[in-house]
Amino acid sequence: MNFTVDWGTLVVSVPVMIATCFGTIKFIGKAMSKEYFDKRLASYTLELQKDLENHRSTLEKDRNEYIKRLEEEIDKNKKFREKYTEISFTAIQAVREEIRICNKFSQTKDATSDELLYKKQKDLIEVLDSNRVYIPEYLVTLVERFIKIFYDTCTSYSAFTYEYKENPNSKNTEKFYAINREYSTELKSLHEEIEKHARKELAGAA
Question: Second label for 52, Cα 20 to 30 Å away, from 34, 154, 174, 183?
Answer without folding.
Answer: 34
